[in-house]
Automatic annotation (TrEMBL):
Keywords: Membrane, Transmembrane, Transmembrane helix. Involved in the cell surface expression of neuronal nicotinic receptors. Binds RNA. Its main location: nucleus. The chain crosses the membrane at residues 79-98, 110-132, 159-179, 186-211, 223-245. It comes from the Eukaryota. Coiled coil: none annotated. It is a multi-pass membrane protein. GO terms for cellular component: Golgi membrane; nuclear inner membrane. This is UNC-50-like protein. It is found in: Nucleus inner membrane. Belongs to the unc-50 family. The keyword Manganese does not apply.
């Protein structure tokens, strides 16, 4: 009877452990921590934000450590998302001031940027990448090895942060000051479009690093192919006088009308 009892206890523990590692359990734990700021590690989240600019490979090495210690690739701490939301709010208010928007218009823009541009587009991109990687990039398709949706969302957040800083913080300095990029003269749209090139290039590169860090994926180099299209669009934009920053300013104003 002793071996039977031991086996039953082992099975019970295994089932409980498996239940704690389901997608629903991880999602519940993550969302629950959003209500407890004292449980969030904001210092570590700031460390990640710094290294996403200087050495993004170090950030993804930390994801490896999390997999080894907590048996999941995705973040279990929402501190990074909270800080990203704060930066997004501050930068959007800055855009409202630079574009001479009123209080109500700035509030409308803030809601658009948070719930559509950040959350909505983020959910869409993460889901598409999650489907593509699990469908086409797995070395050995198996239930034991697949890309977590939460990890795909984390990769998007990692890549979105440098883009946010460049286009929503750094670009503000040039819209009406120093070099007026919200204009039709060459230096203006050259500087503005170059900032767009760097920002989107960062997004593509950090996205590639995120999926390349997963040992069970193959042919992740295909995620770098959009760089060719990005370079072509940049050359055309400078040659033909397209001003992406001017278009963004017009789009933001049109949204809040």
């Amino acid at each position: 009877m002793l071996p039977t009892t031991s086996t039953q206890n082992s099975c019970t523990l295994s089932s409980r452990d498996a239940a704690r590692h389901t997608a629903g359990a991880k999602r519940y734990k993550y969302l629950r921590r959003l209500l407890h700021f004292h449980q969030m590690d904001f210092e570590f989240a700031l460390w990640q934000m710094f290294y996403l600019f200087t050495s993004p490979q170090r950030v993804y090495r930390n994801f490896h450590y999390r997999k080894q210690t907590k048996d999941q690739w995705a973040r279990d701490d929402p501190a990074f998302l909270v800080l990203l939301s704060i930066w997004l709010c501050v930068s959007t208010v800055g855009f409202g001031l630079v574009l001479d928007m009123g209080l109500l218009e700035t509030l409308k823009l803030l809601l658009w940027v948070i719930f559509v541009d950040c959350i909505g587009v983020g959910l869409l991109i993460s889901t598409i990448m999650w489907l593509i990687t699990n469908q086409y990039l797995l070395k050995h398709p198996s239930r034991n090895f697949d890309v977590e949706w939460g990890y795909a969302f984390d990769v998007h957040l990692n890549a979105f942060y440098p883009l946010l800083v460049i286009l929503h913080f750094l670009q503000l300095l040039f819209i009406n000051h120093i070099v007026v990029i919200n204009s039709d003269w060459f230096l203006g749209y050259f500087v503005g479009n170059t900032l767009w090139l760097v920002a989107i290039g960062y997004y593509l590169y950090i996205t590639f690093l995120g999926y390349n860090a997963l040992p069970f994926l193959t042919n992740t180099v295909v995620l770098l192919y959009p760089f060719a299209l990005l370079g072509l669009v940049y050359i055309l934009s400078v040659s033909l006088g397209w001003n992406f920053t001017q278009g963004l300013c017009w789009f933001y104003k049109y949204r809040v009308q």
